[in-house]
C-alpha cells in the first residue's frame, strides 16, 4: 500500500459532524458539585430538629461528592483526549481526497476509451485463478488468468475492449472470479477502483464518498494508489 502525505489543513470537501457534539458532550464537574451542595443545604434547612444530621453523615456525603467530581473530571479528560485522536485521524483521512483506492465490490464502473483498473484479494495460495468481466446479460467481455498465485492483492487493467475487439460503452460491469488450489475452491475478494471525492467525518468510522461507486469506510479500503 502506498504512503500518503498528511495535510495539516482540512479541505473544504470534508464535512465535520463533530463540532457541535464536542462542545456539548461534556458535563461540568462544578455544576455537579453545586447541585449537590444545593440539595445538601435544602436537606439541612428541612431537617428534623429532634434528629439533626450528624457530622459524620455530612462528612460522608461531602466525601462522596468529591469522589464523584474527581471521576467526572477524569471522564471529561479521557473524552477530550479521545476526541483529539479522532480529529487527528480525520486530518490524515482527508489526504485520501483525490486519490484512487481499491475497495471490495463485485462491479466496476468503466468509462469508454479509458483504461479501467480492478483487482482481487487472494486469501491463500491458488494453483489457478480465472477473472472475468461480464455485462448485465452475463456475456464474457474480458478474461485474466493466473497460475500458482500467492496470497495478496493483485491489480489488473482492462482497456475497455471485449473478446471480439469491440469498444465497450460506459457503464457498470460485473466481476467474476474462480480461484482453486488443485480441486479445492479458494476464497477470493473482488476489488474495484474508485476515486475519493469527499469525506464525512464523525465520532464513528468516517464515511468516504466515492461518487458513482457510492460510499465506503476506511476499514474497507484494500489499496491506495499514488
From TrEMBL:
**Which residues are in the FlgD Tudor-like domain?**
88-222
Record flagged with keyword Ribonucleoprotein: no
What domain of life does the UniProt record list for this protein's source? Bacteria
Check the record and name the Pfam families matching this protein.
Answer: FlgD, FlgD_ig, FLgD_tudor
Ribonucleoprotein is among the record's keywords: no
Sorted alphabetically, which InterPro entries does this protein's record hold? Answer: FlgD, FlgD/Vpr_Ig-like, FLgD_Tudor
Q: Give one GO biological process term.
A: bacterial-type flagellum organization
Q: Which residue intervals define the domain FlgD/Vpr Ig-like in the entry?
A: 108-183
Keywords in UniProt for this one? Bacterial flagellum biogenesis, Cell projection, Cilium, Flagellum
Family indicated by similarity: Belongs to the FlgD family.
What this chain does, per the entry, is described as: Required for flagellar hook formation. May act as a scaffolding protein.
Name assigned to this protein = Basal-body rod modification protein FlgD
Q: What is the lineage of its organism?
A: Bacteria, Pseudomonadati, Pseudomonadota, Gammaproteobacteria, Enterobacterales
